[in-house]
From TrEMBL:
GO terms for molecular function: ATP binding; protein kinase activity. InterPro entries: Kinase-like_dom_sf (IPR011009), Prot_kinase_dom (IPR000719). It comes from the Eukaryota. Residues 1-90 form the Protein kinase domain. This is Protein kinase domain-containing protein.
Amino acid sequence: MYLIFGKFPIPLLERSRKGRGWFDIQTALPREELLPLPPPATFEAVFSVLMEVEGQPPPSEELLSFLKKMLVIDPAERASAHELLSHPWLTSTT
């Protein structure tokens, strides 16, 4: 997940009960002995592959923007439900 959305914020890991067990608090990366690092990927690449599997057209830029705002790792930085409800992807008529 961190390869797609970025590193976990260190304050979030420090607040987590299990953060120190799974992550190196200095680098905010998973401990390699527990989670081998897969090749890097982007959110767009992963989502496009999923859409191809389902036989759907590629995702729109508005949909990707909506999902990125919704799936931010740190709850303090994540868009609120109110903000997401006013996102153009949900409010557009086309």
